[in-house]
Amino acid sequence: MTSSQLGDVFNEAGSVISVEIVYDRVTDRSRGFAFVTMGSVQEAKEAIRMFDGSQVGGRTVKVNFPEVPRGGERAVMGPKIRSSYRGFVDSPYKIYAGNLSWRLTSEGLRDAFADHPGLLGAKVIYERESGRSRGFGFLSFASAENAESALNAMNEVEVEGRPLRLNLAAVRAPPAPSPGPGLERNVDNSELISSIST
DNA sequence: CCTGAGCGC
What we know:
Layout: H1 3-10, E1 16-23, E2 30-38, H2 41-51, E3 55-56, E4 59-60, E5 63-64, H3 72-77, E6 93-98, H4 106-112, E7 119-126, E8 133-141, H5 144-154, E9 158-159, E10 162-163, E11 165-168, E12 191-195
Antiparallel strand pairs: 1-2, 2-12, 3-4, 5-12, 6-8, 6-11, 7-8, 9-10
This protein binds one DNA strand through strand 6, strand 7 and strand 8.
């Protein structure tokens, strides 16, 4: 089974952000499982509900959260601290939102866009030391189309008394040079692990 | 830096 076929299956439970079938380093054969990143924890739960124990590609599959998520179970389901920043779901389709009120939080930003399809996450950027808002933030979407239509609908719309200045987000700077041996796998808190073989 | 352009740690 290909990752794109697997993605098609999981799309029935919500927005699939990425699919990564794990292969054996030497034999290049599928190891029989994959990581599927869904757009939200909610959608991840839905995928588990729908597909755990079901037939996929002619096999009975197991679908569940990764066994040892980064930070442990508490971090996965635990309460948010200051904003939806911790729960921010990234995607390649992002809007830059500027001219934000100093008091607008990530949740406030998310709420302002709540009606728009495909919204995955919102975050306001804060200064590290002072904790003050830097007056801008980002919104991530499931698709380029979703991002564009939200941008068109919300640009210059007033939120907390100030008109939003929206743009498609610039392509992010390259990831920082990795310091150590790169054995870390990117296990996100909305990923699923499933046993699926070809 | 009690701020108003800024593209994230």
